[in-house]
Amino acid sequence: MPTQAERARAAAERLGGWTGGEFCPDGVPLSELVARYGTPCYLYHGGVALAQLARVRAAVGPDVEIAYSIKANPSLGLCQLLTRAGAGAEVASAGELHLALAAGVDPARIVFAGPGKTDDELRRAVRAGIFAVNVESLGELERLGEIAEQEGRDVGVGLRINPAKPLLGSHMRMGGRPTQFGMDEDDLEKAVAAVQSRPHLILRGVHVYTATQVFDADPLVEHCDYVFDLACRAADVAGRPLEMVDLGGGFGVPYFEHLADFDLERFGHGLRSLLAQRRADPRLARARVILELGRYLVAEAGVYLTRVVDVKRVRGKTFVVTDGGMNHHISATGNWGQVFRKPYPILNLSASPDGAAEPVDLAGPCCTPLDLFGTDIALAPPRPGDVLGVFYSGAYGYSASSLRFLSHPEPAEVLLWQGAAHLLRPGGQPEDVLAGQTGLPAE
User: Fold this and answer.
1) In the chain, which stretches have pLDDT less than 50?
2) Could you tell me which residues come within 8 angstroms of residue 77 by beta carbon, excluding any fewer than 6 positions away?
């Protein structure tokens, strides 16, 4: 397995590599990017995201639809690129639904998941005419039925099932045990009957998403087979074939050392073979098979740029302090589901990629010991003013972070596409701390 330094170098090469000794993602010099947009800054390479979508499609075949999980990165420009390339959307809030529609996603290719949908969100989904609301409880099903009747509109329903059987080989389990996600497998028959009792609810099928960061392809194929079994049970109770089998997703992204790449080709071969068998069953013959992918499509397309502010020695260790940290990139600083702090692939982009490296502890600007990208990271010796790149930052970065913490300005978001840089969201200014605040009236 590659070291983190090797993984970082490979990630940089995918984004464009070096030209004349300067890092040039998608052919745009780093010096030009930081001069225009400043640091900290998020760069997203549209071509890398589209290439990943194409890889997935080639692996799983044309019989499987890809729904982009917008939660991974809700930047409009990136969503537009994926939509124009044929991806549908999986949304988990009214805001994500609004964004998907603004990005041009056909409502017939949108599914809405999430354990805490409000009445307003359900109403918006009904009015938008999306393909399916993946309901997560019998109570939510009841509320959706009432809203659809009030609106006088039909709405598609997917039943999110928490299966009795866990998915092995994942780093974050969301099913196969007591969780807030979905309804018990034992309630499947009751849920089907509840859908059929409501005149405006249309049973589309089942949805099972039990884990994310899955690295073992074979258990994931077995999980898909299990979901098809659940779908057949639902079809039997409904007395008709299903229109949808939503398999979830969760393909692993190897952020850290000692993680192998997810074997996409092995999974694709297994899923295609499974589908060839399952399509012979009339209960599933015409069902739309959906994979929800977010992180896997966009993580490697992004790099977070942050500038070195200070370098110091403290009790024999070298500390490098940057102008961005956990306030902008909470997942890369080990504060989002990590038990042990492990660094993302990181490079000093202002130094030669072939230069010698030394171990440093890399910290952000926030007044907390939690703001640490990692310890003993091998970097070309950083100097104040150098720009560091935190790779695999296209997912769960900007939107997942506590952007107002310590009132530092927010980072810009920039999309690189066909050799040009497009500003998706401008960086902030210190004065933005007052934006949206009213304060007390004057005395």
Assistant:
1) 169-176, 337-340
2) 44, 46, 415, 417, 422, 424
Identify whether the C-beta of residue 27 lies closer than 8 Å to the C-beta of residue 319.
no
Q: Which CATH superfamily hosts domain 106-293?
A: Alanine racemase (3.20.20.10)
Tokens 């859908």 identify what position?
195
Query: What's the pTM value of the predicted model, to 2 decimals?
Result: 0.94
Domain 4-45+299-427, CATH number (from 3.40.50.2300, 2.40.37.10, 3.90.1200.10, 2.40.50.140): 2.40.37.10
Q: What is the pLDDT of residues 348-395, one digit of tens each?
A: 999 998 889 999 999 999 999 889 999 999 999 999 999 999 999 999
CB 43 within 8 A of CB 303: yes
For residue 414, CA distances in Å to 3, 201, 395, 425, 427 come to 28, 41, 14, 7, 10
Task: Yes or no: say if 328 and 410 are a contact pair by the CB < 8 Å rule.
Answer: yes
If you compute the radius of gyration of the chain from its CA atoms, what whole number of angstroms results? 23
Give dist(CA 392, CA 14) in Å, integer.
Answer: 11
> Which H or E run contains 194?
helix 188-196
